[in-house]
Amino acid sequence: MFGRNRERRERLEAQQRWEAWSAGHVEPPLGPDTQEPVAVPVVDDFLPPDLRLPTREELAGMLMAHDLPLVLDGEVRACSECGAYRNWIVASTPDGVWLRCPAGHEQVEPRLDAAWYNRTSGPIIEQHATYEECLRFLGH
Ligand SMILES: [Zn+2]
Questions:
Q1: Pair (72, 42) in one structural domain
Q2: What is the pLDDT of residues 9-30, one digit of tens each?
Q3: Per-residue DSSP letter, 65
Q4: In this structure, are 10 and 71 located in the same domain?
Q5: Handedness of CA 61, 52, 10, 26 (dihedral sign)
Q6: Which ranges of the chain have pLDDT less than 50?
Q7: Alpha helices in 56-113 (DSSP H)
């Protein structure tokens, strides 16, 4: 799924950079000598407003696939019920970060938090109405 989503993800990242930049530049920036507005970058192929995704704060929870083993405190995290250690779904919710193994066992992982999730997950690429839909999208 990563290859298929790369172009879209890069576009979202460009949009986020643009929005972050725009937020800090309400006035057109001025050149040092000319007092004329300097060129403002034009971003092509912008997503229309109805395709924009909500901010993280607006979501009930976020999921990502984590196919590689998760190493926590120097140990590979394994499912306590079936021993699976790869192909996790990681969920960030107001109750904490949850891990779901390929067999569907779900466990909260107190060593992970929303900050870790945000560092690891990259931008939001899809929005789903239900947890189950999102799981299906991620291949579980
Ligand atoms: Zn399991």
A1: no
A2: 888 887 888 777 767 655 555 5
A3: E
A4: no
A5: negative
A6: none
A7: none
